[in-house]
Amino acid sequence: MLKYTLRRVLGMIPMLFLVSVVVFFLAKAMPGDSLSGEIDPTNTNPEYIAEMREKLGYNDPVYVQYYRWVTDFMSGDFGKSTRYKMPVADLIGEKLPNTIFLALTSLLITYVLAFAMGMYSGRKPYTLGDNLIAGFNYAGIAIPSFVAGVFAVYFFAFKLNWFPFAGSVDIEIDKGTIEYWMSRIHHVMLPAFVLGMFSTASYTQFLRNDLIENSRKDFVRTALAKGTPMGKIYNVHILRNSIIPLVTFLGFDIAALVGGAIITEKIFTYPGIGLLFLDSVNNRDYPTVMAITMMLSAMVLIGNLIADILYGIVDPRIRLG
């Protein structure tokens, strides 16, 4: 397992290099630059803009700009945000905790609901409860997250007033108090549920079908013939085999939820990495856009590595050299 992990980590290096090339040149292919929005003939001196472009190195050859960016990036210098006038690392450090909190909350909701509904449907298939859960699953898979987010804001925030429609915490509450954390949970619940709805529906249906399939296998009939209670068969034998794929999805979920939060954070005006990314794209804040994109790409690779390692841990039959 150690050799396999080291081999995968080393294999991530050329992948990150290729991603950096694509990210950089796509950013350069976008129209204009971070100074384009500052050009106003009524109050901006064109000579100042030209001087700033020269100072920032925008006039250098592309390969020189890439080498300078990637070497600075590897040393931990992500550049300075042209929109917020502060280091990109500090800017991401301010927004990242909110996105991580949103992703972890969504992950918790996803696995709790998927486990509960999947177990019920798998043990009682083709019943009324199973059909109702299946209806929820099909709706969760069919409805896009941005559509679900808009309707969730309209009904649960504006009509029912159960949840706030924007922000991550009540600004009037002192930081660090119990009320502060309760407010954060209250603000994150609705976007977290919308963010995890698709995964919840998919995993519920997956677990249900796997439980039904495993319940028909020979080892279940053998256990029944020996007088083993059905509850123990489900909890010890069937569930153990059915839950293995769900555990391995955890690595993929970590990266997918952070990336998927981009649209959700925009709908709910949740101040995280996703909202920062979209604002940076709109304002041509290239240092921030490239840093966030590289971070998300690295998380995808790390998520794949975690998924492979978890698969080897939860299933002893897997032997990775």
UniProtKB/TrEMBL annotation:
InterPro entries reported in the protein's UniProt record: BPD_transp_1_N, MetI-like, MetI-like_sf
Location within or outside the cell: Cell membrane
GO biological process, one term: transmembrane transport
Database matches in SUPFAM superfamilies: MetI-like
GO cellular component terms given for this protein: plasma membrane
Residue ranges occupied by any ABC transmembrane type-1 domain in the UniProt entry: 96-307
Membrane topology, from the record: Multi-pass membrane protein
Keywords carried by this UniProt record: Cell membrane, Membrane, Transmembrane, Transmembrane helix, Transport
Similarity comment: Belongs to the binding-protein-dependent transport system permease family.
This protein's name: Glutathione transport system permease protein gsiC
